[in-house]
Design a protein that fits this description.
mainly alpha
């Protein structure tokens, strides 16, 4: 293993930024936006604005990711870009604390910039992985990052939930003050635990220095990178497979709460299920990292996909609250593993010293994820409903349709030859 201090410092960034994903994106912001910042605003208008904010931020990242990746590779500035985006996310998340009731436009603005900071920094954090890990332990290091992310995000989320349920313990007036203060704690947590990466992670340098000419040439390089990906058949095949099965993963993450509410579960039950997933995900991501290192990365991803197929099928049939909690735990067993091993497996299929450029496309697909799944669920639900069946049956059929993404993704992944892909990437470089 390379310098352990570098490895831990890199992995701690997942610990740092997962607080935003858990407390802000998945936990408090959507509810608080409805009940506090957009109070008095037509519910349909606020829903539209929130949706547009998420979409606009994602589109900006999708457009910028390959270009910024190309610039970072040529100018050896992955770490600098990561820090800039992380600082943006930290400042915008902290700024949410200062917004008062009814300030929904400002909330959308800060939240959107926070998403850009979070997503942009992830591109360069992923691209630094080959710099801190050797090929024989890159799966474990990637898994370690996701494991610490689940643990860190879960710990702070527990504290934040307590702030809203027991505000007097923290010297706060009420639950509203608890939620607002939670946004500030996320910003502080994110910034504090980014410091180890800033200090100890070293980036491999290229001969070229950052300049205006590099910026201009990077715009041309994006088209060149896409052409390279098309030539690298195994890389291209993996990206298509990844897009499909990670779309299924993200769809379940995003739609689980809605599905749980539609069959009568309370919001407190859903928060508990989220916490179960977080804390089960901590040891499981590390286990999958070791499994990929000692056994086989692709087969380990297959295990995760098979578990998701089971979860999706069983989700169609569940009726009891405890079943929802059991499925949350099962998802926690494989969610981090699938994400971590996909990240490390991809590193084997890309040319050396072009990591940020290629991870820009990888993260771009990640942002496009959860596009097919929700549409598929909706279409299937409408078709089943039009057949005269109940809304409950239609909802369950919609969830079941996600199995298609996992099956097709697994079939394409099966065709990816890691050895051939690595050979082609080396030759292209």
């Amino acid at each position: 293993m390379k310098d352990r201090k570098q490895v831990m410092s890199w992995a701690m960034y997942d610990w740092a930024n997962s607080a935003f994903a858990t407390t802000v994106m998945a936990g408090f912001f959507p509810v608080f936006f409805k009940e506090f910042w957009s109070v008095g605003v037509d519910v349909n208008q606020s829903t539209l604005m929130l949706g547009l904010t998420n979409s606009a931020a994602s589109v900006l990242v999708v457009i910028a990711a390959p270009i910024l990746g190309a610039i970072a590779d040529q100018g050896s500035c992955k770490k600098r870009f990561l820090i800039c985006f992380a600082c943006l996310g930290v400042l915008m998340t902290s700024a949410l604390y200062f917004l008062g009731e009814g300030q929904w436009i400002a909330a959308c603005f800060f939240f959107g910039l926070g998403i850009i900071g979070f997503s942009g920094a992830n591109i360069f954090n992923d691209s630094l992985l080959p710099s801190v890990a050797e090929e024989d332990n890159i799966d474990f290091v990637s898994g370690l990052g996701y494991a610490l992310g689940y643990l860190g995000g879960g710990i702070l989320f527990v504290i934040n939930v307590l702030m809203t349920q027991k505000p007097v313990w923290f010297g706060l007036e009420n639950a509203v003050a608890g939620v607002r203060f939670s946004f500030l704690t996320v910003g502080l947590w994110w910034g504090l635990f980014t410091i180890p990466l800033m200090v100890w992670v070293k980036e491999e340098k290229n001969a070229a220095k950052f300049s205006e000419s590099i910026i201009l040439s990077s715009f041309h390089k994006v088209g060149s990178t896409f052409r390279k990906i098309r030539k690298l058949r195994m890389t291209f095949l993996f990206l298509v497979a990844y897009w499909l099965y990670i779309d299924g993963v993200d769809t379940i993450i995003r739609m689980a709460v809605d599905f749980g509410m539609s069959i009568g579960f309370a919001s407190t039950d859903l928060i508990l299920a989220l916490l179960i997933t977080q804390f089960v995900g901590f040891p499981s991501a590390m286990f999958f990292g070791k499994l990929g290192e000692k056994w086989d990365v692709k087969n380990s991803i297959f295990i995760g996909i098979l578990v998701y197929i089971f979860v999706t099928g069983y989700g169609m049939l569940m009726t009891q609250k405890y079943e929802f909690f059991v499925l949350a735990g099962i998802i926690g067993l494989v969610q981090g593993g699938v994400q971590a091993l996909s990240r490390s497996f991809y590193s084997r299929l890309i040319p050396p010293k072009q990591e940020a450029e290629f991870y820009g496309f990888y993260n771009m697909l990640g942002k496009f994820a959860a596009i097919i799944g929700p549409v598929l669920m909706g279409v299937v639900g409408i078709i089943v409903r039009s057949m005269g069946l109940s809304a409950n049956v239609a909802s369950r059929s919609g969830i079941g349709s996600i199995v298609i993404l996992f099956i097709v993704g697994a079939m394409l992944l099966y065709k990816v030859d890691e050895i051939q892909g690595k050979r082609d990437a080396q030759m292209l470089n």
